[in-house]
Design a protein that fits this description.
The chain has 95 residues and is an all-alpha fold. It contains four helices and no strands. It starts with a helix and ends with a helix.
Length: 95
């Protein structure tokens, strides 16, 4: 929990710089996850996965543009990166 608090404090301190990097980074992770998901076909399961990836990644961008609190943006960023990594791993194993 100490790592989380230190990283959050650092994120709050340089919010606009990290927000810019967050948009770029999590969008790249999301697009990679979407690519791996669509490489397994376009059946309904993949479409649900794709919808979840897009929803989670867009929530971070929306939170930044809506100027929500730094903690909210930071938590959504963590959720976005972890879910993208999860979908990348799941779809890599299915290939």
């Amino acid at each position: 929990m100490e790592l989380y608090q230190k990283t959050l404090a650092n994120f709050k301190n340089s919010f606009f710089a990290y927000a810019t990097l967050a948009i770029i980074g999590q969008s790249c992770f999301g697009s990679i996850a979407a690519m791996y998901t669509l490489s397994n076909g376009t059946n309904p399961l993949q479409m649900v996965q794709l919808a979840l990836i897009v929803l989670i990644c867009m929530s971070v961008n929306t939170a930044i543009l809506a100027q929500l609190t730094a903690k909210t943006v930071f938590n959504l960023l963590i959720l976005s990166v972890l879910s993208s990594i999860f979908f990348i791993i799941v779809n890599t194993l299915l290939i």
